[in-house]
Amino acid sequence: MTALYVLVPVSIGMGLVGLAAFFWAMRHDQFEDLQGNACRVLATPEARFKEGTPDDRLAAHAEDGDTAGGL
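The structure assignment produced for this chain is given below.
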């Protein structure tokens, strides 16, 4: 029972820290460009730095010709 006297305030404190971090992120526009960040993750490193080139997200791999699925 005495452990609850420590764990309950710690859990409330952690929740408040998480809530404060969320509000900090909202104030500093961390959630403004969600679609751009999603596309940036999928882009190949070469395509990120070349202007005007098509983005080759589904590049062919050696395993693609294998009909057994690589098993």
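Interim note for the steering committee: The two ends are 54 Å apart (CA to CA). The chain has three helices and no strands.
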